[in-house]
Every structure is written in C-alpha cells, then in structure tokens.
Amino acid sequence: MTIRVLLVDDQPLLRTGFRMILEAESDLVVVGEAGDGQQALEQVRALQPDVVLMDIRMPRMDGVEATRRIAGPGRDGPAKVLVLTTFDLDEYVVEALRAGASGFLLKDVPAEELVQAIRVVADGAAMLAPSVTRRLLDMYATKLPSGEEAPPQALGALTEREVEVLRLVARGLSNAEIAAELFVSETTVKTHVGHVLTKLQLRDRVQAAVYAYESGLVRPGSM
C-alpha cells in the first residue's frame, strides 16, 4: 500500500529535502506541499493524504490550529498529523499533541527514523518516543494535579489492567514492550489499548499519554 504524504512547512528548501527523502521509498509518495496552515487545510481537502508532516510555526495559520482542524476532536478524516519542528518540546508542540497530532519529531531526525515514523503513524499507531514523553511529563510537572484531587470520573470506567496499560502507554512503551512488562501477548495489549481509547474517547496513544499526565495518573519521577 502506498502512503500519501502532504508536506507543510514555510521553508521551501526544507520541503524539497523532505520530498527527496520520502520519494526514495517505494511505499511513500508526496502528493503535495503547503507553506502555511491555511494552505494545508485546502490541500488536505483536495488531495486526501494519509499523513501530514506539519511544521508548527508558520504564517497565516500555525501548525497547532491546522492540526486541530485536520485531526482534532470530532474530525473523522483519514489524515494523520506528524509534527516536525526545529524546536525541542515546548508549549506549541504540547498544544499540537492535544489538538490531535499522532506524533512529534525534531527536524534533524535521521532520514530512516522519519520514514519509519510516517509508516507507524499511517498504520494508526502513534510516534511518541520515551525521550519525548519524559520531556512532556517534565513540562506538565508544574501543572499536574497535586495528587489530593479526585481522579477524573472517566478513569473509573477502566479496569485495573486497563489503567496499568494506560500508565505504560504514557511512559512511551510499545505494545511489544508492554506485553513483556505484563507477561501477556501483544494481541491482548492491543485489545486493552483499544478499550482505553474507546472508554476515554481518545483518538490515539498520544492523546492517551497526555490524558494520563493531565489527570495525574502519571506523576513526575514515576517513569
């Protein structure tokens, strides 16, 4: 299956570089480019890409708002958003993840990792490396509940094992790693993750991780 990719960045030279990397792969095709968030929305409607490589800081409409309109709550289109930025994790990237992005990478990522991230996101999974979850958790440290507040009611809908799986997802573990940690099959883990996403009305693992931080389920120093 060919994965259709839309490149969104306000720097033409970077778009050209990304295009060269991606089009060297037999299963990836760049269907279009956009220089800002507004153009990205128009291209998504016209070209129906599978994955949007999204810069954050752009003129007219930034990547956060564009991500929200492409992949945010209530959006059921097929396009997944993979955030690419020259900046390390900051409030803009956190907002993009909350807006519906399926992953986050720095622009200096090796070519093979970029290609693999696109395949992972296109397959419906999330690209959230443990190093990113660590910085995400550190960023939320001053905003997290103190632990004295009651947990969100929605967590009560999860079984004990589903809560355990959610904690491990928030730590950035893959399904295979969670399976090894809990001594269960990878298929069982996939089932648990699916139940968690459905019960909490979350789109993917990235939003599940952010939910775990915001609800206080995962706390600084617990990783």
Automatic annotation (TrEMBL):
InterPro entries: CheY-like_superfamily (IPR011006), NreC/VraR/RcsB-like_REC (IPR058245), Sig_transdc_resp-reg_C-effctor (IPR016032), Sig_transdc_resp-reg_receiver (IPR001789), Tscrpt_reg_LuxR_C (IPR000792), WalR-like (IPR039420). Residues 4-122 form the Response regulatory domain. Residues 151-216 form the HTH luxR-type domain. SMART domains: HTH_LUXR, REC. Keywords: DNA-binding, Phosphoprotein, Transcription, Transcription regulation. CDD domains: LuxR_C_like (cd06170), REC_NarL-like (cd17535). The modification 4-aspartylphosphate is found at residue 55. It comes from the Bacteria. PANTHER family: TRANSCRIPTIONAL REGULATORY PROTEIN NARL-RELATED, TWO-COMPONENT RESPONSE REGULATOR. This is Response regulator transcription factor.
